[in-house]
Design brief:
The complex is a heterodimer. By secondary structure, chain A is α/β, with parallel strands linked by helices. Chain A is 37% helix and 11% strand. Chain A has one domain (3-271): Rossmann fold (3-Layer(aba) Sandwich). Chain A has a 7-stranded mixed beta sheet with strand order 1-3-2-4-5-6-7, with helices on both faces. Chain B contains 10 helices and 25 strands. Chain B has a 6-stranded mixed beta sheet. Chain B has a 5-stranded mixed beta sheet with strand order 1-2-8-7-6, with no helix packed on it. In chain B, 46% of the residues are buried. The chains are: A alpha/beta, B alpha/beta. Chain A binds chain B through residues 2-4, 6, 8-17, 20-21, 91, 94-95, 98-103, 122-124, 126, 206-208, 269-270, 272, and chain B through 1-2, 51, 88-90, 94-97, 99-101, 120-123, 253-254, 256-257, 259-260, 401, 408, 452, 455-456, 458-459, 462-463, 465-468. Chain B: Pfam families: FMO-like (PF00743).
């Protein structure tokens, strides 16, 4: 990162700080402290901390990583926040990350990956993982409109975004489970949804953390080309899990991506 | 970020033995950087140097982090009720926010726990040698530094280690400045400097004179108004007492809204005077002198309670002290008052007794070095001072960016020496630059900076160092 991109003057952060909101944080801590960095899972729009509490939290803890999952404001068990912005979400992530006992690895899913990318500019994470990242732009909207016009169109006008089973999960996931998950989905603030249409490119990360991008080529929300583009921005190639839906942490083969993330963290020298 | 091999106690046996000019052994610490002090500025120096890949040895004379903010430290100036005077967004490190659940103006105990969490979060303690004080810092050839340390209190042997660079973060609020007064030695009452004031119980039921209208003096006067049987507050001139809240928001946030809109100083001063007129009104009716300067020309005093207690008769404003008599204090206007306790809230002076004054271009030895950005010394590109600033806002953000700039300068010395050389030239050309509007000349104002002006200057320096 060159100095011309480094922003010292942050007038808005100083004189218009984000209004605090109560946040839900779930955790799974390994029984033995093994000196591994804590992981903070950040769910995407509509999802809450529950999406990670289902499988990934416990699995990460069983492999020795202290694991935390948060709900962005207005999601899950956090305080309702209909007017939340992308900036408020990023603030929530930085707040939770800074409250952890040690420097954390941020793991963002879907639009939560974009929130993480913004948080990385304000918090020197030990590393970051972007899972099926939704970085906004017209391409994502086009794909969503093609797959699910009735669920997507209202969001363009400030209504809720309704994702359906086909977008989020593969056919391997039993119908009953998929219905249960879709039933738990909430919605993001309309201003945050609109922000996805604009150009919400994040500032460069502080502290040069290593970044891993992963997703599925069969994801019906994030096209494979987007995965490649995001990974290239961080100087790498995406790790792919064919046959899985957008919600890699809930889909039938949820263990593969999380194992890949943990393997990467164990190998990545800078993430220790 | 491995933490196992790249640091360790500088041990003469473990590294190639060299000797300094006196023939004493020196352990060569290679590219490691030495940080003096583990207070706010020292901690952020360690963190940012580590983040840029440097090994760090930090020496701290106390047994804990937090420096001035750790009330257990014998040099700590904090008293039981110390609160921040800048609100959270201006106070916190820019990449490690204070918790949302904390108040706008946290208590000093919260500030200490903030530093302890910062140290743990970024694993800084393993780089700090506690209970070790630095007694000498000497330049040696190759723009490196010999740092001599020993256990705090002078026990144990002296050790010397050679470092690639040094960051001085020893703080400037620990060496009390005591003014001289005629007859002070004969005064029979109790005299203390604010540095030894810890708790309002020290004033309870007594007749108290507080000297000095800095933020500390005003705080102590307010506590005396609550606890003492009588309180006089002596000030040399009239000041602007800014409330901590204006228009329903922390005052510094309102002020920065104007700064961001680039409202000219004159207009801001006018607005400020107008706001004060609406809230506290004309202070001369209480006997307070009329300020002889405009707002923003002295270090801001943020105290909502002082005027309140003046208005309730708890604080009696009096002019400067002329001389002391055994049982009375004579004031500049000829009046005599009879306090039992005199508290001098007359501030502190920076001191660098471990460093030869000539290194700093401080020939008078007055603790007043000539620096660029209050951090860089002409002719010594591997030396930086962190936190030698008296900002009109929080200090920690400024220290953070100073140490980021220094870490990047050290990186440039390795990777792009021509850039570093150009930087060194700028340090020579611009040393002594000031980063504030016109301020009243005083030993506490020479390192006064406006936070916006200062941070813009640091941003420019970063761009010049690394830009195209």
């Amino acid at each position: 990162m060159s100095a011309s991109e480094l922003r010292i003057m942050r007038g808005r952060e100083w004189f218009r700080p984000v209004r605090p909101a109560r946040r839900e944080v779930l955790s799974a801590i390994p029984e033995l402290e093994q000196g591994r960095p804590p992981l903070l899972f950040v769910p995407g729009f509509g999802h809450g901390a529950w999406a990670f509490a289902e499988h990934w939290l416990g699995h990460a803890a069983s492999r020795g990583f202290p694991a935390y999952a948060m709900s962005l404001r207005g999601h899950g068990g956090s305080e309702p926040a209909p007017e939340a912005t992308l900036r408020a979400y990023a603030h929530d992530v930085v707040q939770v990350a800074a409250s952890l006992p040690r420097q954390a690895v941020l793991v963002g899913h879907g639009a939560g990956a974009l929130v993480v990318a913004h948080a990385l500019a304000r918090y020197p994470a030990r590393g970051a993982v972007l899972v099926a990242p939704v970085f906004g732009g017209w391409g994502v909207l086009g794909a969503a409109l093609r797959r699910n016009p009735a669920g997507t169109l209202p969001a363009v006008f400030g209504g809720p975004l309704r994702l359906n089973r086909g977008q989020l999960f593969s056919r391997e996931l039993p119908d009953e489970e998929a219905r249960r998950y879709v039933g738990r989905l909430g919605r993001a603030g309309r201003r945050a949804q609109w922000a996805l249409l604009g150009d919400p490119a994040a500032e460069p990360a502080v502290g040069a953390p290593p970044v891993l991008v992963l997703g599925s080529p069969d994801d019906r929300v994030v096209p494979a080309s987007t995965l490649t583009r995001v990974a290239r921005r961080y100087g790498s190639a995406p790790l792919l899990f064919p046959g899985m839906g957008h919600d890699l942490m809930l889909d039938a083969r949820w263990a593969e991506p999380i194992d890949a993330i943990l393997d990467w963290l164990e190998k990545e020298p800078a993430a220790h | 970020m491995s933490t196992s091999t790249d640091h360790g106690r500088p041990d003469p046996e473990a590294t190639s033995p060299t000797a300094n000019s006196d023939g004493r052994p020196v352990s060569d610490r290679g590219d490691t950087v030495c940080v003096i002090g583990a207070g706010a500025s020292g901690l952020t120096a360690i963190k940012n140097l580590r983040e840029h890949g440097f090994g760090v040895d930090c020496y701290e004379r106390e047994t804990g982090v937090g420096g001035a903010w750790n009330w257990r430290h014998d040099r700590s100036p904090v008293y039981a009720s110390t609160h921040l005077i800048s609100s959270k967004p201006f106070t916190q490190f820019p990449d490690f926010p204070m918790p949302d659940s904390w108040p706008d103006y946290p208590h000093h105990g919260q500030v200490l726990s903030y530093f302890e969490r910062y140290a743990d979060h970024f694993d800084l303690r393993s780089h700090i040698w506690f209970g070790t004080e630095v007694i000498r810092v000497e330049p040696v050839e190759g723009e490196r530094w010999d740092v001599t340390t020993r256990s705090t209190g002078g026990y144990g042997p002296e050790r010397t280690a050679r470092y690639a660079a040094v960051v001085i973060a020893n703080g400037h609020n620990w060496s009390p400045k005591l003014p001289r007064y005629e007859g002070l030695e004969q005064f029979r009452g109790e005299i203390m400097h604010a540095s030894s004031y810890k708790d309002p119980a020290q004033l309870r039921g007594k007749r108290v004179l507080v000297v000095g209208a800095g933020n500390t003096g005003c705080d102590i006067a307010v506590e005396a108004a609550q606890q003492a049987s009588r309180c006089w507050h002596s000030t040399r001139r009239g000041y602007w007492y800014a409330p901590k809240y204006v228009l329903g928001r922390p005052a510094d946030q309102v002020n920065d809204t104007l700064l961001a809109l680039r409202v000219p100083l004159r207009v801001r001063q006018w607005l400020y005077h107008w706001t004060l007129r609406l809230t506290v009104g004309d202070l001369t009716r209480f006997g307070l002198p009329k300020p002889d300067h405009r707002v923003y020309e002295t270090h801001p005093i943020a105290n909502s309670q002082l005027v309140y207690y003046v208005g309730h008769g708890g604080i009696g404003p009096v002019p400067d002290v002329a001389r002391f008599h055994p049982y009375a204090v004579e004031l500049a206007d000829g009046r005599e008052i009879d306090p039992e306790v005199v508290v001098f809230a007359t501030g502190y002076l920076p001191r660098f007794e471990f460093l030869d004054a000539s290194v700093f271009g401080d020939s008078a030895g007055a603790g007043r070095p000539t620096l660029w950005l209050n951090a860089f010394t002409p002719g010594h590109p591997t030396l930086a001072v962190a936190g030698l600033l008296q900002p009109d806002s929080g200090l920690f953000t400024l220290s953070h960016w100073q140490t980021v700039l220094f870490a990047r300068l050290l990186t440039a010395r390795r990777d792009r020496p021509e850039r570093a050389a150009a930087f060194a030239q700028r340090v020579r050309d611009r040393a002594g630059e000031r980063y504030s509007g016109p301020v009243k000349e005083s030993s506490r104002h020479w390192f006064e900076v406006g936070h916006a002006d200062y941070l813009r200057a640091v941003q420019r320096a970063l761009v010049e160092l690394e830009g195209k």
